[in-house]
From TrEMBL:
Coiled coil: none annotated. SUPFAM superfamilies: C-terminal (heme d1) domain of cytochrome cd1-nitrite reductase. This is Membrane protein. It comes from Escherichia coli ISC7. InterPro entries: Haem_d1_sf, Host-pathogen_enzymatic-act, Lactonase_7-beta_prop, WD40/YVTN_repeat-like_dom_sf, YVTN_b-propeller_repeat. PANTHER family: DIHYDRO-HEME D1 DEHYDROGENASE, PROTEIN NIRF.
Length: 179
């Protein structure tokens, strides 16, 4: 069904199951797909124009929008941009970027609090988690992670993915190359 959308890095689905939002890393865009009608409704440009990314990172293949999360009211979508080092707040109805919030280096995965007032962004290169206040759109803190000693299958640094505990008091992360 989604064969027409290539290079999906992450997805978010509306509560009613009708809308799919897909992060397309290679084109640095977000595709809005109607699952009932089985068609693309919109394509939004992610936080940094691909032309700027190409100029700044020598090609930037796989360096665009990485992770998505919908606000509880589904009026906003949050997107991390690997090359831009940013979390962007995007109006779902218009595709307009409302706010771009600086994160640590190379933000990847993203999680929201249940009430949608906080976000945590995993920063792969800076090996940290950025705490973001989604009410004020402020970067509150960077939480450093333990250094990875490189004994796994890869020498790439940093965190990979994370999950929030049900009581929202702890974040669990994995490291690239860990066994």
């Amino acid at each position: 069904m989604l064969a027409e959308i290539a290079d999906i890095h992450d997805m978010a689905i509306s509560r009613d199951g009708n809308m799919l939002y897909a992060a397309i890393e290679n084109t640095n865009s977000i595709v809005v797909f109607d699952l009932g009608q089985k068609k693309i409704l919109h394509t939004f440009t992610a936080p940094i124009a691909k032309e700027k990314s190409v100029k700044h990172c020598g090609g930037c293949k796989d360096q665009g929008v990485r992770s998505l999360a919908l606000s509880p009211d589904e009026k906003l979508i949050y997107a991390t941009s690997f090359e831009a080092n940013a979390l962007s707040v995007i109006n779902v109805a218009t595709g307009e970027i409302i706010q771009s919030i600086t994160t640590g280096a190379h933000p990847d995965s993203l999680i929201l609090s249940r009430d949608g007032t906080k976000a945590w962004v995993m920063n792969r290169t800076s090996n940290s988690v950025s705490a973001i206040d989604l009410v004020t759109y402020q970067h509150v803190a960077d939480i450093p992670l333990e250094k990875y000693d490189g004994t796994g299958t890869s020498n790439k640094p940093g965190a990979w993915v994370m999950a929030l505990s049900p009581d929202e008091k702890n974040i669990v992360d994995t490291r690239y190359g860990q066994r």
